[in-house]
Design a protein that fits this description.
Structural class: mainly beta
Order of helices and strands: EEEEEEEE
Distance between the termini: 25 Å
Oligomer: single chain
Radius of gyration: 15 Å
CATH architecture: Roll
CATH class: Mainly Beta
CATH topology: 10 Kd Chaperonin, Protein Cpn10, Chain O
C-alpha cells in the first residue's frame, strides 16, 4: 500500500489498516433528527470502514473490503494528515464484499 508518493507502508502479520469514515460520526434518526458523534449511546455501536492495506497473514480480508469493528478497541495512526485505524484480523466482526457471493447471510449494504 502506498499512502503517499514518499514512503511505502507494508502491514505485517494479520494486521489490517482501514480508513476512518468521516461521515460515520453523525447519524440521523428515523425521524430525521441529527445525532452527533459525541452523544452517549446506551448500547455499544460498531462501525464500518474500508480496508486500505492488509498483512500477509490476513486470510478473510482484502483491500477494498468494508469491515465491521468496535471503534472503542481501535488504534489510530496519522500518516501525512490522514487518520487510519490499525487492528488485527481477529478484531473484525464482519466483512462486506462483492466477492463473497453465495456465502453471504442475505443482508446487503
Amino acid at each position: 500500500m502506498r499512502v503517499s508518493d514518499k514512503t511505502p507502508i507494508k502491514m505485517l502479520h494479520d494486521r489490517i489498516l482501514v480508513e476512518l469514515d468521516r461521515e460515520a460520526g453523525e447519524r440521523r434518526s428515523s425521524g430525521g433528527i441529527v445525532i452527533p458523534a459525541t452523544a452517549a449511546m446506551g448500547a455499544q455501536r460498531l462501525a464500518w470502514s474500508r480496508v486500505v492495506a492488509v498483512g500477509p497473514h490476513a486470510r478473510s480480508v482484502e483491500i477494498g473490503d468494508r469491515v465491521l469493528f468496535d471503534p472503542d478497541d481501535k488504534a489510530e495512526v496519522e500518516v501525512h494528515g490522514e487518520v487510519y485505524v490499525v487492528m488485527r484480523e481477529r478484531d473484525i466482526h464482519a466483512v462486506a464484499a462483492d466477492r463473497l457471493g453465495d456465502t453471504a447471510t442475505g443482508l446487503y449494504l
